[in-house]
Specification:
Elements (H helix, E strand, L loop, with lengths): L7 H12 L8 H9 L4 E4 L8 H9 L3 E5 L3 H13 L7 E4 L5 H12 L5 E4 L1 H4 L2 H7 L4 E6 L19 H8 L4 E5 L4 H10 L6 E4 L7 E7 L3 H10 L5 E5 L3 H13 L4 E4 L5 H12 L5 E4 L12 E6 L6 H8 L9 E7 L1 H10 L5 H19 L4 H8 L13 H4 L4 E3 L1 H14 L5 H9 L4 H6 L15 H14 L2 E3 L7 E3 L1 H8 L5 E3 L23 H18 L3 H4 L2 H10 L4 H4 L6 H23 L18 H10 L4 H7 L4 H13 L7 H7 L2 H14 L5 H8 L5 H16 L1
Parallel strand pairs: 1-6, 1-7, 2-4, 2-5, 3-4, 5-6, 8-13, 9-11, 9-12, 10-11, 12-13
Antiparallel strand pairs: 14-17, 15-16
Helix pairs in contact: 2-3, 14-15, 18-19, 18-21, 19-21, 23-25, 23-27, 30-34, 32-34
Length: 730
């Protein structure tokens, strides 16, 4: 094995000769020296940091062939094509995978045996084939490089079981130094990779995971389609990626964007291969501005000027989130990372895991929990993300995330921190954060009883606060290093040495409380947590007018138009009945019945203030392909039972009621009395109806449930509320 010591000028000369660069980036030179010295090497380098050069340059300089193991055929092809542009000899780099015919395989093997090839790429599946193992035994291997090494770990965001067979195959072929490379690895995943590859003694080169040019923001998931269209329209000509979890949502959103004049294309694994490749190329060649995709899109996509990455749905893990957001701003320029979050999505993801093996479900749930913590926390997003990857970020304010730009008030948590650490010390290092917070609030679960922790003196010592509050305290303890998280038994907490010192000599410490992204959030997602109303003066005038119209019609104001509709009017400035129908929650019926005075007021206001109206932001909708709404309206007209309607469309009752509420809120009247008569007691129905007619200040379900009491179910209240809104508001 070559172990020649290279001077910096020699390495720079080779870098210039082969790749045309005059300087190394970050850790590249140190990594390359370690590989050239024949040592095992572990490289943690974020997307855009120049990982591939770390194995390409030593491969060209060393005797023999470097075996590069990579998970994607498209990625291999891109890398081989790129390497060939740096050399006069096409045989310099090859790949061996299932896409090659017999003649091509023969050509590759001939080039390798003739000594022309310096880099030979394999997918892990191809590496395990006996004929390939036999071939590789014949040649001198300079080193093995395992790219996207996080695929080895079940805790990684892209686990592939075949990656765990790499080490035995390497032993079978013949020992050579091993290099593992990844752009995302938590301390847990790093440990898994090194253990599985038998490289615990490898030298680890870890670059900072901080991407200072990226702006991180989480927004509540309210009217997400409209919000995305507005954002894209406000960033014309910029390249963006929008990630959705389902293929169906990818298709629908791409179609909706096109209907609103955006050059958008879909991309997912269910599409024909040629169509997928064409759409990817159109995005790379800037014939399309936006690609709407599942996570199948992006690995190895080297487009440096993606200006925003939007997550329609929260990803399944923080590693996935980091990898996907990392595709923004790779050139160091603007990169906005916006994620829409609702806890309902987390519950959906948990449901999807139910058929999987128990161990996999447990891992999946813990990864999801980390994502929830990130989304709901009011701590600097950058600090939170870097801590997850085992890196400390010491700045108080990063200046480039929603939490730092709109900070929530801080509270002194010295006393609470001491309480949490005392309880952790008392229960010992065998439990996760959820268990610790449950003991703190005094939750008498069967697990707590089985360990006898309901009998300790400190049980329930923090009952004046809820588990969410204590969760924030525990996370602060992790950030500060007072609490350690076990790597081998992931998630088990223990009191650190620093934590014991803090208990001995406590000092003031501040925390910010978490966000509460509830479904009825009054914050507009597009305003970064500020109130959505673009024109507060007009909004106030519209509220006054609504009061007068309500009094004239002897109705509660919310029946005329709800607040979100008035907010939308204060942004869109509709001045005709037709334009008013495009406003969120209005529809044709309401516009005709109540709209005249509102559009007159807005028209006069627009003229007086000389306002230029943002008409390009009126969202055009596409026909609902599922036909759910039409089917529901027709079924109710035929007086079908709701259970039968729900069954016919594969909906839960809650989802059906949501669809009906959406139909009614957009101005279509429905007569559901026939169903209410069957399922709601007459006296109860009358009491609920009177509440909405005479007492209700808004149409809030929570307020109604609180006022009406435990005798009423949520379903009963929702049904009668629908009837009330139909009879009084249409």
């Amino acid at each position: 094995m070559e172990k020649k010591e290279y001077k910096s000028e020699e390495l720079l000369a080779k870098l210039k000769e082969y790749f045309g660069f005059s300087a190394f980036k970050g850790n590249q030179e140190n990594v390359i020296r370690n590989v050239l010295a024949g040592e095992d090497t572990f490289v943690l380098m974020p997307t855009g940091g120049g990982k591939s050069l770390c194995y390409q340059l030593p491969a060209l300089m060393m005797d023999g062939v470097a075996i590069i193991i990579s998970p994607l055929i498209a990625l291999m092809k891109n890398q081989v094509d790129a390497m060939r542009t740096f050399s006069m000899e096409d045989g310099i780099a090859h790949f061996l995978n299932s896409s090659l015919n017999k003649a091509a395989v023969t050509q590759v093997k001939n080039d390798v045996l003739a000594g022309k090839t310096k880099l030979l790429y394999f997918a892990p599946e191809s590496l395990t084939k006996e004929e390939n193992v036999a071939f590789l035994r014949k040649i001198k291997i300079s080193f093995y490089a395992i790219d996207e090494a996080h695929c080895i770990s079940e805790w990684g965001h892209d686990f592939r079981p075949e990656y765990r067979r790499i080490r035995p195959i390497v032993n079978d072929i013949g020992r050579a130094p091993i290099m593992a490379l990844t752009a995302t690895a938590t301390p847990k995943v790093q440990f898994d990779i090194q253990k599985n590859l038998g490289m615990m003694d490898a030298k680890v080169f870890k670059s900072s995971f901080n991407r200072p040019n990226l702006y991180y923001e989480i927004r509540p998931k309210n009217d997400v389609n409209r919000d995305i269209i507005r954002f894209v329209k406000q960033n014309p000509g910029k390249s963006g990626i929008i990630y959705c979890l389902s293929r169906k949502k990818v298709e629908e959103l791409a179609e909706l964007l096109v209907a609103n004049g955006v050059k958008a294309l879909p991309y997912h694994a269910g599409m024909d291969g040629a169509a997928r490749a064409n759409n990817q190329d159109a995005f790379l060649m800037e014939q399309a501005d936006v690609i709407v995709a599942t996570i199948a899109f992006g690995m190895g996509i080297d487009k440096p000027d993606v200006r925003y990455v939007i997550h329609y749905d929260i990803p399944k893990s923080l590693e996935g989130y980091y990898q996907e957001t990392g595709r923004a701003g790779r050139d160091g320029g603007e990169g906005r990372c916006i994620t829409f979050y609702s806890y309902k999505d987390i519950q959906k993801l948990e449901k999807f895991m139910q058929g999987k093996p128990v161990a996999e479900q447990e891992i999946g749930r813990l990864l999801l929990l980390e994502t929830v913590v990130y989304a709901e926390s009011s701590v600097c997003r950058r600090k939170n993300l870097l801590h997850y990857f085992g890196e400390e970020y010491t700045e108080e304010n990063c200046g480039a995330c929603d939490n730092c730009l709109n900070p929530k008030p801080k509270i002194n948590a010295q006393k609470h921190m001491c309480t949490a650490l005392e309880v952790l010390e008392a229960i010992g290092p065998k439990f996760k954060a959820e268990y610790l917070t449950a003991v703190l609030v005094g939750k008498n679960t069967s697990m707590i009883k089985s360990y006898g922790h309901n009998k300790i003196e400190l049980f329930g010592v923090g009952s004046e606060h809820d588990e969410k509050f204590w969760g924030a305290i525990v996370r602060k303890g992790l950030f500060e290093g007072f609490i350690d998280k076990n790597i081998e038994n992931y998630g088990l907490l223990s009191l650190s040495e620093k934590g014991a010192e803090y208990l001995d000599k406590p000092y003031p410490i501040t925390i910010t409380l978490d966000h509460d992204y509830n479904e009825d959030s009054a914050d507009d997602p597009m305003a970064g947590g500020k109130n959505a109303v673009a024109d507060e003066e007009l909004f106030a005038m519209l509220k006054d007018l609504r009061k007068k119209v309500a009094a004239k019609n002897n109705l509660p104001p919310f029946v005329i138009f709800q607040d979100p509709s008035l907010e939308d009017m204060s942004i869109q400035y509709p001045i005709t009945i037709e334009e008013l129908q495009n406003i969120s929650g209005v529809g044709a019926g309401k516009a005709k019945r109540f709209g005249e005075e509102f559009v007159k007021l807005i028209a006069a206001y627009v003229e007086e203030k000389e306002i230029i109206r943002p008409q390009d932001l009126v969202v055009k909708s596409v026909v609902n392909k599922s036909g759910n709404k039409v089917f529901i309206i027709q079924s109710i007209d035929r007086k079908m039972d709701f259970e039968d309607i729900a069954h016919a469309k594969g909906l839960e009752m809650e989802e059906l009621l949501g669809e009906i509420e959406s139909i009614v809120n957009s101005g279509t009247g429905l007569d559901i009395s026939y169903y209410i008569d069957q399922v709601v007691d007459e006296d109860k129905a009358e009491e609920i109806y009177l509440y909405f007619k005479e007492d209700a200040q808004s149409d809030s379900l929570e307020e109604a449930m609180e006022e009406l009491g435990d005798d009423f179910t949520e379903e009963e209240v929702r049904l009668v509320r629908i009837k009330f809104l139909c009879e009084q508001g249409h």
